[in-house]
Each structure stands twice: as structure tokens, then as C-alpha cells.
Amino acid sequence: MAIHFNQSTIAPIFTADGIACQPLLNEQRVRGILFELDRLTIPPGGHGKLTTAPGELAWFQMTAGTATIHAAGRTLPVAPNHIGLLPPKFEGTLASDAGATLLFARVPKAERLDPSICSDPPPFRVLDWQGELLLQSEHDARKRIYIITPKMFGTRAIRGEMIIYPPGTECPVHHHQGGAHFMFILTGEGTCYAGAAQAMSVQPGDVVYYHDLEPHWVKGGKDGDLIFSEFFVPSAVATEWADPSKVCTWIPTGLNYRGGRASRLIEKHAHSHLADV
């Protein structure tokens, strides 16, 4: 069965810096999981370290507030539209004047998923997902934005996407092979399904974790867009559709989420044969 819960049900653990850490996904909750996912809340005026060990990869997604990253002589402001990748042996700090919340994930042994991580590590990079190319489903009203791919970040250990379901939109039944993934609900409501009998009503702050090979699909709610981010570990996860005639094909709109010119271009492609986009 899929794992489903809301972030509010996880008790925080406070660090020495006063940062509240809620462990969302780890080995204690999911046996054999390849990554750890935490929700970090930085109090107003708070700050903490951002570090990764050798052979470890990490990424973050801001969900509320604003903060500043200090690393390698750079000062970088981040807001809820920012997602970043931290390479092995990264050292930096994260500070917030007014307070901030972010998802923070680690892949402890990323070299098992991408052997080049140590010899040719990806760069530290932060992007604004709202400036990335918006893709439209060929068959329905769903939209997709790639936020972490091998081509964008230079690693095959993880893959991330932002998904938008207008009201009533539903995707076909499918499963993934070669890795697990989770969804974090950012905005709106809807229903996530798993297997033949599991229906999960979702709302902002919900986490849904699907196991490898677990059939699933999603349906948007009645009012407003359902928007969620989803991350796959590793990136090379194959997608198989219960009905092959309903394979999702994604068409580039040429625009970003804000309606302006996108930061890059992607060719039309089928999600079942995802290239290095």
C-alpha cells in the first residue's frame, strides 16, 4: 500500500540552532528507502548549516517564507519558487530574517545510483521552477514542469517534477519500475489512488509515497488547481501504463508558469520513454 500522511502529524525535533526538523520519510517509516526527507522550519532570525557528506547528494524545495544561502563566497536569496541541488561535500549556511520552511532530502549513498557523483560531481545550483518550461498533456488538461533532470542538474540519482491538475482532471493508471517516488501536495485538493482499493484524499502538506511497481493514479479536486511536486530516486525510472493507448505525451507550450518566455526549450515527448530533458 502507498504511504499517506500530513506533515502536521509529525512531531518536530529541535536542533541546537533552534531549527525544527520533522522527519517525513526515512528507513524507520519505509524499509529499504534510498533517501531521507525532512521538513525544516527556520524561526525568524534563525540560521543553520547546509552540508553534505562525500558521496552524498541533497536537494531542497522552499515551501514558505524567504531565506538566504551563503556558500563558496556567494549569497543567494531563496523563496517558495526555488529548488536547489547540493553536491557531495557541500558546505554552506541557510538564514532567514522572517522565518522559512523547506523540504530537505538526502541521498546518503548517491554513488550507488550515479557512479560519476564523486569523480564528476554536479554543481551547486538553485532554480526558479516558475521560470521553467510549462508542458501540456496531449490528452487532457494536466501540465508538467521538469525541475530536476540529468540534463538540468548533471546527475541521474534523482529526478523532480512539478505537476498541475486542473479541477476534475485525471491521469491514466500506471506504475513505475526501477525506483520509488513521493509526492508533496503544495496547493489544492484531490484524490490519489493506489492499487485496487486505496483512495487518499489529499490537501496541502500531504505526503504520498508510492513503492516500486505500485499501480496508481491521481484526480484533481472540484475547485482550483491541484499542484504537487514529485521526486523519483533514481531518475531512470520507467513508466508503464495499464492501457498503452493512454501513454502520456507532453507538448511544450513555449511559456513558463507565469506566462512569460520559458528559460529553455524541450521537444515533444512521451513520458514512458523520458529522454534527458
Describe the structure.
With 277 residues, this protein is mostly beta strands. It has two helices and 25 strands. It has a nine-stranded antiparallel β-sheet with strand order 1-20-17-22-15-14-13-24-25. It has a seven-stranded antiparallel β-sheet with strand order 2-3-4-11-6-9-12, with no helix packed on it. The chain starts with a strand and ends in a 7-residue tail after the last strand.
SSE blueprint and pairings:
Elements: E1 3-6, E2 13-14, E3 20-25, E4 36-42, E5 46-51, E6 57-65, E7 67-71, E8 74-78, E9 82-86, E10 91-96, E11 100-107, H1 116-119, E12 125-128, E13 133-137, E14 143-148, H2 150-153, E15 159-165, E16 174-177, E17 180-187, E18 190-194, E19 198-202, E20 206-210, E21 216-220, E22 226-233, E23 238-241, E24 249-256, E25 269-270
Antiparallel strand pairs: 1-20, 2-3, 3-4, 4-11, 5-10, 6-9, 6-11, 7-8, 7-10, 9-12, 13-14, 13-24, 14-15, 15-22, 16-23, 17-20, 17-22, 18-19, 18-21, 24-25
Alpha-carbon distance between the two ends: 31 Å
Q: Output the radius of gyration.
A: 18 Å
Q: State the helix count.
A: 2
Uncertain runs? none
Output the strand order for the largest sheet.
1-20-17-22-15-14-13-24-25
Task: Please give the number of β-strands.
Answer: 25
Q: How confident is the prediction overall: mean pLDDT?
A: 94
Shape: globular
Largest sheet: 9 strands, antiparallel
> What is the succession of H and E elements?
EEEEEEEEEEEHEEEHEEEEEEEEEEE
Kindly name the structural category: mainly beta
Which range best describes the helical content: under 10%, 10-25%, 25-40%, 40-55%, 55-70% or over 70%?
Answer: under 10%
Strand content: over 45%
